[in-house]
Amino acid sequence: MSWVVLVVSGVLEAVWATALGKSEGFSRLAPSIVFVVALIASMGGLAYAMRELPLGTSYAVWVGIGAVLTVLYAMATGTESVSVLKILFLAMIVGGVVGLKALH
Known about the structure:
InterPro entries: EmrE-like (IPR037185), Small_drug/metabolite_transptr (IPR000390), Small_multidrug_res (IPR045324). The chain is mainly alpha-helical.
């Protein structure tokens, strides 16, 4: 169950990171609310997962999922350019996350 919560928390990290960008310095209400709610849920899920999973593994998986999804969303919406190297490096992050899960 901790792994499921950790993955969902990683997804929520991407949500709050994206909402933070869209909030334009907290000047837009809806993205600011999404940011706060997703941040609290994401941190709560990370804390829950860390009760059973090692700190380093939990944090690395959480950040890795959040970072990859945030960049993929930015590329999909056209706010960030797409390149072969970016895709390769994102795949390396995913490989690291999968490797950490496999070792646990």
